[in-house]
Amino acid sequence: MSRLEQVRETLNKYGQPHLLRHWEELSESALEKLLTQIEEIDFPLVARLIKNRDHQHSVEPGGADDRAARAEAPEQMVRLPQTDADWQRKKEAAKAGEQLLRDGKVGAILVAGGQGSRLGFDAPKGLFPIGPVSERTLFQILCEQLLARSQAVGVEIPYFIMTSEATHLPTVAFFEQYKYFGLGEENVYFFQQASLPAVEYSSGRILLESKDRVATSPDGHGGILRALEKNGMIGVMKDRGIEHLFYHQVDNPTVTVCDPALLGYHLREDSDLTTVAVAKTGSEEKMGVLATVDGRTEIIEYSDLSPEQAARTQDNGTLVFWAGNTAVHVFRREFFESLLSDDLSLPFHIAHKKVPYLDDSGTVQTPESPNANKFEQFVFDALPHAKVALVVEENRDQMFNPVKNAEGNDSPATCRAALAQQARQMVESAGGTIAEGITVEVSALLWSAPQELASLVSGQVFEEDTVVG
User: Fold this and answer.
1) Residue 403 near residue 411 (C-beta atoms within 8 A)
2) N or C: where does the chain have the smaller number of CB atoms within 10 Å of the terminal CB?
3) Nearest to residue 409, comparing CAs of 270, 280, 241?
4) pLDDT tens digits for 227-240?
């Protein structure tokens, strides 16, 4: 049986024969590309998703409304330090986290599958220039943070970078061009998340984007579990003695990569999954929230909360849903592995989207209303499976300044302003002075090296825009 016949047999079995409707019109290379893409589709999984799409799986029975009604503010939590005892606890946690790093038991995971299209930037988001003076990229700032941490603890910390079909090749090329930002090629591991096909809502048919391409989209950051296993990354982690994983996303350059205090809290509480929360700006902010539901820590998406639920308050008048999700987590590696078993697989979420498609006549149609389902998993759905799940509150201004929108909140402008403000604080604490209206940028290599920074800026007055380091 030829390859074409084998693919056609699979498509007939799963009721998707139309994907080869135009094969005779394709060049040999185009047909090869289409066959490869079809062969990579997990048809048993897609069939289950189509079958269950009208009964969307949620972590708790009763649906999102019921969960939100039962939810309370997170219980297992470390709040921002207020007392001397709190600060002492954080100091001890940082010491424990540093030792964990020195022992070589920590790896970092960077989720970098997104494009910069919402920013008007036609490239992987990690290539976006964000330095307020230097225009250094998101990738460079995050990599230099990790390099500085590695140098401080005397251990090469491996970086596991998850890309997507759209971002993989340009991301790898960018790292090669900049010599892996000093991390060493042997310490940077790229792995690609899977894609899932878009399914027409009315018929359950997988959509074609063109005659030689299926319409697909990444399977969500929860797809990291399968991607790690498929690409052999779990084995790499074991071989390198990695027991804990610091997880973060590419759009937030002010996160403290491999934060020793966070790692220490995680270790001392024997947590399977630790996540960072920041205070929401208000009940209306579109941000997922951490909560306790039936004694377990969960994240509830903002879209699952009605305005009335989002505004619900505790007895002391503060919001129940105040703890915003930053997408910064620490995982125990063994917990990650346990999630790969079938009985603990993460649920798929169904999105209703407008997806352009090729109709039966071979014409591309652009729908005016949602016509298709996309399926994705969220890594935070692992929280209820953790025997111990810890939430750690951090200062929002210092660690959560993502680049998500072209303008307004969470935009390049707000992120650059935050980087400039942090640099001003660092320089002034190190004995330097920055004139009013002047922007100074401090290299991420110096963020955790105050003595080295002081040697460069102490006694200096900056009267023009400058990059230090």
Assistant:
1) yes
2) N
3) 280
4) 999 999 999 999 99
Distance CA 317, CA 434 (A): 40
DSSP secondary structure, 256-316, as one string = -TT-HHHHHHHHHTT-SEEEEEEE-SSTTS---EEEEETTEEEEE-GGGS-HHHHT-B-TT
Please choose, from the candidates 449, 76, 78, the residue with its C-alpha nearest in 3D space to the C-alpha of residue 263.
78
CA 12 vs CA 47, 96, 437: distances in Å = 13, 57, 67
Task: Give the CB-side neighbour count of residue 216, counting CA atoms within 13 A.
Answer: 22
Pair 321, 291: CB distance under 8 Å: yes
Q: Using only C-alpha atoms, what is the Rg of the chain? A: 24
Q: What is the pTM of this model?
A: 0.92
How far is CA 58 from each of CA 55, 275, 301, 376, 389, rounded to the nearest angstrom? 9, 20, 11, 13, 19
What one-character DSSP code corresponds to residue 80? P
**Residue 61 pLDDT > 50:** no
DSSP string, 19-79: GGTTGGGS-HHHHHHHHHHHHTS-HHHHHHHHHHTTS---SSTTHHHHHHHH-BS-SSEEP
DSSP assigned state of 232:
T
Distances (CA, A) of 328 to 235, 254, 262: 23, 11, 10
- Residue ranges matching CATH 3.90.550.10 in the chain: 56-405
Question: Whats the size of the chain, residue-wise?
Answer: 469
What are the φ and ψ backbone dihedral angles of 351, each rounded to 5 degrees?
Answer: -110, 140
pLDDT in tens, 21-55: 999 999 999 999 999 999 999 999 999 999 887 55
| CATH 3.40.50.920, applies to 56-405 | no
